[in-house]
Amino acid sequence: MDDLSKVASEVRACTLCGLSAGRKNAVPGEGPSRAEVMLIGEGPGFHEDQQGRPFVGPSGQFLTELLASAGYKREDVFITNVVKCRPPGNRDPLPEEIQACSHYLDRQIALINPKVIVTLGRFSMAKWFPGQKISVVHGKAKRIDGRVVVAMFHPAAALHQQSLRSLIEEDFRRLPEIVESALAEEARATPKPSDSAGEQLSLF
What is the pTM of this model? Predict the structure, then answer.
């Protein structure tokens, strides 16, 4: 039977791509198994590789502040990345590395079944908003295959570019509104024969 601990065990032993050769610890992700909100970043950095936990470095500290501003604690949400091992020198993950990790992420999403997915950065955004620019779609939500996906800047962006900080903070302050809308729509929804599996509905 598939569960999050089984996925995590497989991630820690994974050698499907070259990132496994340079890691100290793989970083499967953490959070409640039935979290309503799931945050998906890009890949572990130095501190995450050392500890085997997601978002524990400077960008993770900012993420904790952002979640608090939205009324959440880290323990309320599930946090993971599109790749589970640190790319050398914190470079961008390569397409083949993202592909090698994709079945782990897909299983985590299926097991948790979050109401809302928050993508952090352009590499996780690309899974649901292909071909889009994060500068255009940040803070916008879309219903895809029965759940709401909202694109946001990666917290690290504010550490490198202070001008983005207020933008990121404002996007996160709207997260409760987005979650509330998703839950309300789910409560109202009744299955219809004409519903399509890949429906995409812009909420904002």
Answer: 0.89
